[in-house]
Each structure stands twice: as C-alpha cells, then as structure tokens.
Amino acid sequence: MLFLDYIPDLNPLELAIYQYIRDNLSKVCFMRIRDLANETHTSTTTILRFCKKFDCEGYSEFRIKLNLYKDQQKQTSINLIDETALINFLTRATESGLTEKINEAVSILKDKELVLFLGVGSSNIIAEYGSLYFSSIFRMALRIEDPTNYPINFMSQELAKRTCIVVLSVSGETKEIIDYLTHINMCDSMIISITNSSNSTIAKLSHVNIAYYINQESSHGADITSQLPALYILERIAKEMKAT
Questions:
Q1: Is there a contact between 243 and 188 (Cβ–Cβ < 8 Å)?
Q2: CATH class for the region spanning 83-243
Q3: CA 31, CA 26: separation in Å to the nearest integer?
Q4: What contacts 23, CB < 8 A, 6 or more positions away?
Q5: What is 12-75's CATH topology?
Q6: What are phi and psi of 191, to 5 degrees?
C-alpha cells in the first residue's frame, strides 16, 4: 500500500485519506498538512495519526517517502505494447531456424499418446491454454497444476516413453520447473521447451527448445513479457501435427 510492503490497519476515515492520496498522488506531494486536512475534511491530528500508520514520524517524512514512491512508479511504468517487436517475431517465425525447431517438436510429438504442459505464473495460464488447444486438435493433453508433485513416478515405463512434456518459461530459469525437469531427466519422456532464450537452463535440459527472443519486461518484480510468441508457437505446432 503506497510505499509500504504490507497493508496497515486503517479505520474508515484513514482509508478515505488513503484513497484521496492514491487518486491525487502528484498533487499531494506538494501539499502542506493543513491543505491535505482540508481536502479530506479531516484535522491535522488525524493526518499525523495516518502518517504514523505508514511508519513515518511526521508529515514531512511521509511526504518525502511519497515523493520517492511517485518517482519509482514513473520508472516502473508499463510501456505500451511494442507492435514492432511482435511484427519482428512473426517475420522471423517464417524463417528456417524457427521452422526447423517446430518440425523437430512435431517429429517428437507425432508418436506420443500424452502431452503434459508445465508452466509457472503467467506461463501457467499459457500451459492451460496449450493443454486445451492440443486436446481439441490432435492428442490428449493435460496441464501439470503442481510442479512439486511428480505424476510421472506413477506411470508405467511404457506410458512414460509415449509421453512428452511441453514446458513454458519466459526466463528459462524458473526454479520449480528446473527442479521438475532435473527429477524426470532420468526417465524416458521427451521434453520440449518454449522460452525466450536458447541459453537458459530449461532450454539446455530439453530435447528440443524453441526460443522466440523478444524484449523482456517486468513491473515490481513481476514478469510482464508478452506471451503472444508462446501462443503462436503452440498453435503452430498443434496445427502442424493435425496436418501430418
């Protein structure tokens, strides 16, 4: 909440002050305490009590921290979608390098009975989409909901051989997925990964890696890199499989 990494216990009046500050951040940074009290229909005493709940000794300290928070928000603002980068990816998608990797993935998948999709965070949503899309077109597919469990331990060796795991990770360094792949690398299942870089750990643990290379973006520690390339690759693999 604002510059705190936790939510303080605010009464209804203090919550109204917070909402005013949130909606008028640039303006409040230059307000005197009396001005803020007038705008929020409270008293300077109430404002000071509010500041203490935000770990500030007084209003001056609160305003300094608020200014720093405002500047940080500007630095981490989310850019508009860069259509040029996506168009560049789609142009590269028709080139031989990416096509060869997709053909390698199709070659692996054509003999498999089961496809397991694996991702964490936003990649988990793409993994769910992939499992639905693949199931609709050509093969039974499931999403691994919890990568800390290893369902492949309960498969027969024959089924493991006829299973392919499709991994989605922008960074290619997701710890939970690396642990999962390290665990199953001893078995007979094949691994296809879709990552932003072929130099990542997950790429190196895979039998086939398809890298799409676009600029990575983050906001407050969260990865907000576009998932459109991963969606394109999944749909193209599925349709290539259907055509074979």
A1: no
A2: alpha beta
A3: 9
A4: none
A5: Arc Repressor Mutant, subunit A (1.10.10)
A6: -125, 125
> Is residue 231 within 8 Å of residue 129, measured between CB atoms?
yes
Q: Is the model's pTM score more than 0.90?
A: no
Spatial CA neighbour of 191 closest among 170, 213, 169: 169
Which is nearest to 152 in space by CA: 182, 189, 117?
189
Burial class (CB in 10 A: 0-12, 13-18, 19+), 139: middle
Residue boundaries of the structural domains of the chain: 12-75, 83-243
pLDDT in tens, the chain (244 residues): 788 878 888 999 999 999 999 889 889 999 999 999 999 999 999 999 999 999 999 999 999 999 888 877 765 444 555 567 677 788 888 778 889 999 999 999 988 999 999 999 889 999 999 999 999 887 789 998 887 775 556 677 788 888 999 999 999 999 989 988 887 655 678 999 999 988 899 999 999 999 998 877 766 667 778 899 999 999 999 999 887 7
DSSP element (H, E) containing 190: strand 190-195
Cβ-based neighbours of 89, under 8 Å, separated by 6 or more: 212, 213, 214, 228, 229, 232
- Identity at 153, one-letter amino acid code: N
Amino acid at position 96, single letter: S
